[in-house]
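Folded chain entry —
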Amino acid sequence: MERVLASELSVHVGMIVNVKGWVYRIRRLKQVCFVVLRDRSGFVQCVLTPELEATLDLTHETVVSIKGQVREGSNAFGNEEIDVISVEILNPAAPDLPVQVNNANVEVNLDTMLEHRVLALRHPKEAAIFKIQAAIAHAFAGFLSREGFTEIHSPKLVKEGAEGGSNVFKVEYFGQTAYLAQSPQFYKQMMVISGFERVFEIGPVFRAEAHSTSRHLNEYISLDFEMAFIEDEHVLMALETRLLKSIFHHLKALYTPVLSLLEVELPHVPDVIPELKLSEAIRILKEEYGKTELDGDLDPEGEKLISKYIREKTGSEFLFLTHYSQKKRPMYTMPCGAEETRSFDLLYNGLEITTGGLRIHHYDLLMKRMMEKGLDPAQYSSYLEAFKYGAPPHGGLAIGLERLTAQLLGFSNVRRTSLFPRDGHRLTP
């Protein structure tokens, strides 16, 4: 008999069906036994005779195949029930579950949850996190595809890191030293220069930074795009504003029940997100909040405070910070004057979720900035070659998927929105 999902039972009332899934709850009464089955689509309450249930030795999370007749019957799990004819145990579950996933919430600390991630993900609220995250990535790709962007898949084993410096993971590569890619930046630019003009990528990036904060991971998913023939960085900022609007519209249209399960209210993205020069933000933080230690960048507290300031002034949960110092930006970032760059970050409720900006497209200037950063141009020859033969003005940005998801869902620790986090302490599961 073909399997029927819990969400499909309304069109099978009166019929005998086969449902398969995990035993979510068991309630034994004198005259009847209720077994709630969970599958990928939801729940269904199944009604067994005590005699049948006594032969089964059911435990929570046991995988079962149940045959029975569907009837209307409103209960906490839906508007249908199944009068059970037979139960086949496909795989029993050990009774000593390290994480209880049949309660209203997963009531364990984060380390325990991550240690037993596969089991914890069976809880509807934990699963909902990654359904929302998948929807964000899907909406990102869909919007950019409609805007004429082509999806690419760049190498993650590279000769040199796009950012320079020491925060790269070394890999032995057939007698050579390779590195795990810090970003797809070089390849995005080269694909734009190749004539594709507009490209995007969704993929992992790796940062070998020895940190242990609630906002950093050593491997995370980056939502990147790059586009050619733009006047300035404001084109990128305007496109990202429309992109965010489209993502949240997609979530509202198709994922309201999932958002409701997590008690999440979607943010309002203004038509024009407020914009503030970094130097002005530092001045405000000094005068309004007494932060005098900032030099060319904001610390986490500074990001929260300037976001609070802008939210009180404008009502916006989003803020573009612009004109970062040349010292704080990679060598490919377009300079603006003697010290600043034509770059930006996007803060969402006090957390940086985006870094972007205009790129250098002139070969000589790129060489100059590379050497000023202490990088050896000979190590970047294939990248530099692309700029010798007609590179258009271009720019792009990257959004941290885990950070965006965490801010949207109200989690203070980005590990909650990483499927299997990789940080300084975790290589399993």
Q: What stands out?
A: The chain has a mean pLDDT of 95.
